[in-house]
Amino acid sequence: MEKQLKVMLVDDEDSIRKVVAHLAQKEGYDFCYASDGEKALQMFAQENPDLIILDVMLPELDGFEVCRRIRQESAVPIILLSAKGDIVDKSVGFNMGADDYMTKPFSPIELALRMKAMFRRAFRLSTESLAEDKDRLIFKDLEINNKTFEVIVRGKKVDLTSKEFELLSFMANHPGQVFTRQQLFDNLWGEKYLGDSGTITVFIRKVREKIELDPGRPEYILTVWGVGYKFAG
User: Fold this and answer.
1) 82: closest CA among 72, 70, 94, 74?
2) Which of 182, 223, 187 is closest to 205 using CA atoms?
3) Which CDD domains match (predicted)?
4) Looking at domain 136-231, does it have CATH number 3.30.70.20?
């Protein structure tokens, strides 16, 4: 019997709880709920969810801090919800390790599509390497293992979120090829996915901070001015 996927919502608005609970039931997902940040961390440890939908504005601990703490021990997909849609707020969320970001009020249909996309991506990453990938890639002092999803930099393991790893792995498997931000965004989230390709800039910076000796003068992920980015193998 297949494991029933579990969605955990963290939000103090009852209307949001009802919407997400209904979506989960309709899609056949298990559902659990916490109304503040402290309860969210307790529930996460108890329930072991497969996807977290996390509001930014929460009592006790805000969503950014909850996301940061969960990221210290898990790569579970996290979708942040916020009434703010500016790039600064998004940047903070992605810096904390979020995989996606939705602005309130949101369309229940769009949320359902994003949930499905997250589950598809997580399943693919857990069962197979990316198409055309080699299992293990080595570039100077950087090693990328597409089977174990580990990244070793100068002999030490570094922790990347699922989206950060996917971005790095995709680019490393196409060394020298220049990609626009939109192409990278489409690869990570899908061509029909609604979102801002500027998000890629945040992910590029985060990956550079983790793998580059000097993120300001990168050796691996290079900016091609006026076009996009490329991986220099």
Assistant:
1) 94
2) 223
3) trans_reg_C
4) no
Q: What are the distances in angstroms from CA 35 to CA 8, 80, 185, 213?
A: 11, 14, 32, 41
Q: Where in the chain is the domain with CATH 1.10.10.10?
A: 136-231
pLDDT tens track for 170-179: 999 888 889 9
pLDDT band at 130 (very low <50, low <70, confident <90, very high): very low
pTM, two decimals, is 0.60
Main-chain dihedrals φ then ψ at residue 86, nearest 5 degrees: -75, 160
- Mean pLDDT taken over the chain: 85
What DSSP element (H or E) covers 43? helix 37-47
Distance of alpha carbon 124 from alpha carbon 50, whole angstroms? 14
Look up tokens 């602005």; give the residue. 103
Biggest CA–CA distance in the chain, Å, is: 52
CATH 3.40.50.2300 fits 6-127, yes or no: yes
pLDDT in tens, 143-154: 998 878 889 998
The count of other CB atoms within 10 Å of the CB of residue 175 is 13
CB 147 within 8 A of CB 129: yes
Which tokens sit at 221? 């992920």
pLDDT at residue 54 above 90?
yes
User: Which amino acid is it at 227?
Assistant: V
